[in-house]
Amino acid sequence: MNLEKKVKADLHKLKLNKKSKILVALSGGKDSSVTAYLFKKLGYSVEGFHIYLGMGNYSKKCLEAVEKLCENLKIKLHVYDIKKEMGNSMCYLRTAIQEKNKPLGNSLKNCAICGVIKKSIMNKEARKLNADFIATGHNLDDEAQTFLLNVLKASPQLSANSGMISQNKKDKKFITRIKPLFYIPENEVRKFSKKNKLPVHYEPCPCAIDSYRIQIRKFLNQLNDDEKLNIIKNLERIQEKLKLSQQKNISYCENCGEPCRNKICKMCELMR
Ligand code: AMP
Ligand code: ZN
């Protein structure tokens, strides 16, 4: 089955109302661009959301790609400028957090910090924009890497809620996330994006130097796509058990009021 048919069938299973407002988190890269393209083509109500990270030429190229895509698809684009809203670029914020944590013996990875900040912004802004869902471009390779990383860190329960649709308990402050490319291998996404000539910035983020994830990615790239899919199918087989060890309800951060699992949310923990 081709990519479009597969995604259509997978989305069909989620039984989304085509009138629900879906905010696609657009990075300028191939995965999120393909996600927005397919939602639009399949008749969903979609808008774009880009976080402008203020990382020099790289960020400018990403914004240009996102603007062009939204123009081509005729979808509304919302841009969140991190420098304007939070006072500094992602590089600056991340380095400050790393410097502060070093003496405590915590070596925090670039992508981990950036990921927490981006997720927090997405949830808050999607709520402000009255979105019903946030969609991201995570593909099969991303998901297999994350699960493997969690297993190797002896924390498989961190994958308990991952899926094409987030399986967290429903909460009015938490916008449900969907990943339409959850079962689609990265190679197929790349081919689809090139075939459809989507305006995409293919250069990887200059700060993505998380060596452990890169090693896992290299390892997984020795497997074929069916074997990668098997890793995810195996995760799905143990997810019910993983959820039992993760029974904490969603509560609200004592500092900022955002939904989280502990007393303080990850974002506040980093920014403290
Ligand atoms: P990454 O963590 O960079 O692999 O990105 C995973 C997903 O997060 C992408 O497929 C996008 O949907 C979303 N994303 C990443 N960076 C941005 C950004 N700057 N603005 C909006 N969404 C983003
Ligand atoms: Zn907080």
Bound molecules: adenosine monophosphate, zinc ion
Which structural class best describes the helix and strand composition? alpha/beta
Order of helices and strands: HEHEHEHHHEHEHHHEEH
- Whole-angstrom Rg: 18 Å
What is the general shape? globular
Quick description:
The chain has 272 residues and is an alpha/beta fold. The chain contains eleven helices and seven strands.
Question: What would you note in describing this structure?
Answer:
The chain is of the alpha/beta class. 50% of the residues lie in helices and 10% in strands. The chain is built from eleven helices and seven strands. It has helices at 3-14, 30-41, 56-73, 82-86, 90-101, 110-128, 140-152, 186-195, 211-220, 225-244, 266-271, and strands at residues 21-25, 45-52, 77-81, 133-135, 176-178, 251-252, 259-260. Helix 2 (30-41) packs across helix 8, helix 7 (140-152) crosses helix 9 and helix 7 (140-152) crosses helix 10 (225-244). The longest helix is centred in the C-terminal third of the chain and has 20 residues, at 225-244. The radius of gyration is 18 Å and the shape is globular. 31% of the residues are buried.
